[in-house]
Amino acid sequence: MSRGYLIRRLLAIILVLAIVTLAVFAITTILPGNAAIMILGEYATPDAVAALERQLHLDQPWYMQYLSWVAGILHGDFGTSLRLSQPVTQVVGEAFLNSAMLALTALAAVIIVAIPLGVLAALKRGTVIDLAIGLFSYLGTALPEFVTATLLLVFLAAPNVGPFPAGGFVAPWEDLAGFAAHVILPAATLGLILLAHVSRQVRSEMSEVLASDYVRAARLKGLSERRVIWRHTLPNSLAPAVAVISLDIGYLLGGIIVVEEIFAWPGLGRVLMYALENRDLPVIQAVTLLLAAIYALSNLVSDIIIAKLDPRVRYA
Amino acid sequence: MRRFLSSPSAVVGTTLLVLVLFAALFGPLIAPYDPQEFHPLARLQGPSASYWLGTDQFGRDLLSRILSGAPATIAFGVFSTTIGVVVGSLIGVIAGVSSGWVDSTIMRILDGLLAVPDLLFTLLIVTVLGGGMEHALLAVAVAFTPGMARIARSAVLSVRTRDYVRAAVARGESGLYIVGREVLPNALSPIVVEATIRVSFAIMIGATLGFLGLGAQPPSTEWGLMVSEARQFMFRNPWCVAIPGLSIATAALGFNLFGDALRDALDPRRSH
User: Fold this and answer.
1) Structurally, how many domains does chain A consist of?
2) pLDDT of the residue at A260
3) Which of A52, A298, B111, B114 could form a disulfide with A36 if both were Cys (CB 3.0 to 4.6 A apart)?
4) Could you tell me which residues come within 8 angstroms of residue A226 by beta carbon, excluding any fewer than 6 positions away?
């Protein structure tokens, strides 16, 4: 992977994000409802509305509004939340940290569970175990997050019976056990869809690699079965799984909106839902841009990991 | 056809799909009770001889509500996907056929739109349009358009340089004839496969919007809305969230498996 390739990819991401800013701005400026009236209430005097419009630059043409918004972003200033009267960077920053903890827990759980599951299914191909894992993963892809979340709540968080809290958040630096108890159900919900995709991908790729010449050669050399599988087969089966995970980051980012809403997890999804309900434009714009940036960057990171896993992959 | 039905996932997918489509077409007709009728003495019951799938918080029969909600839920998925596929394919075909700066401009815009996750995109559009079933349907269609355009474009590109297209160009056929008679029919199968699989996503997103209160509105029996209305009572009767939830999963699974099987049948190179 050459440096030129990386620079070109980063430039492409910047171009994509520039287009996202335009699209988001277009969508949010045609939102019905005057932002000034939203803040001041229906009974505000016309003078007060006009004054606030000037303060928010709503009296300027759209391209001026857009340019001053983009200029602000480039200086790290996303404006002020219309509802919370706090800088957007502060509101979104805290929420981002909470969401990142949830998403990374889900991702880690997926990697720990899905890869062995896929390996198991490939080794036991055609048996009842393989079929069971397959059925489980198909079910995982067909259950929307809100259904999984609700069912998990019913069975694992019933009042007085269930072992887990029904929602809420505890920071890990305050109480690690409390954090773990709160994160488990939302992370399991988010992980289920990815679990299905990743374990299927590992299974099909493993089956192919197991039938390859170099695995046969490794076996003929008299290497132990464990070494053949974990050292020769698995590392060569992981690249497509990484590609699937990076595509699934999109699902994960969408799923987080629903999951946080259901489990009252104070992250980006909750902030977004709150902002959408209250027409809090600066917050909507910032969250959308942030999620798009994460998605684009995760695609780049996955391409880099794939190139590291498989030296044959060359990006010019 | 026999080859198509030889794989187990095709059989399961087709069976589920037939079941779901039957419910969508005839569900309201065969429902044993009026879906909105209260049975105050039989609230929050589990499955029994008189209420096969149990009852909800007002004693309404869950089986009847599921059957009467099937058309709304399934039609949402099918229609939103259809609109997204038609508009997206049109854009994709234009990009694929025109190439040059038109193609690259369209592709850059699509890249930007694709960077926004589907559900987030849908939520933004629903907020602009205001909630409700029709707006939610339109929002999902718009959110699907960029992805479909991309697939249609690559399908067109793979066909564009084939000999039969070159022959048509050499014969001096009009551009519209070449696109309509030579390129499009041959680029259709990946589009159809992708569309079938996407119906399952559309059903799930539609139900999610219903659940969030941004799609179907009460007293609709759309399945996502049913889950959200029953949530308060889920600890007293898990059936009233499990039944609509599993119905959504069945519908999504049916379209998903059928689409996968269709891909294997239409493109033998990909099946192992």
Assistant:
1) 2
2) 92
3) A52
4) none
Chain A residues with CB-CB distance to B123 below 8 A: 257, 272, 276
Q: Which CATH number does the domain housing residue A142 bear?
A: 1.10.3720.10
pTM of the model: 0.86
Identify the domain containing residue B151 by its residue range: 14-27+53-271
Residue A165: closest CA among B195, A42, A177? A177
Count how many domains chain B has: 1
* Domain limits for position A67: 3-74
Give tens-digit pLDDT for A208-253: 888 888 888 888 888 888 888 888 788 777 877 887 787 788 788 8
Residue scoring higher pLDDT (A247 or A169): A169
Chain A residues close to B111, C-beta within 8 Å: 12, 15-16, 19
The amino acid that residue A133 corresponds to is I
Q: Which of A299, A158, A297, A167 minimizes the C-alpha distance to A242?
A: A299
Same domain, A161 and A215: yes
Express each pLDDT in B16-41 by its tens digit: 999 999 988 888 888 788 888 888 77
In chain A, residues 55-74 whose CB comes closer than 8 Å to chain B: none
**Quick check: is B173 in a domain?**
yes
Q: What is the DSSP letter of B233?
A: G
Which 19-38 residues of chain A touch chain B by CB within 8 A?
19-20, 22-24, 27-28, 30-32
Selecting from B123, B130, B208 the residue whose C-beta is nearest the C-beta of A144 gives B208
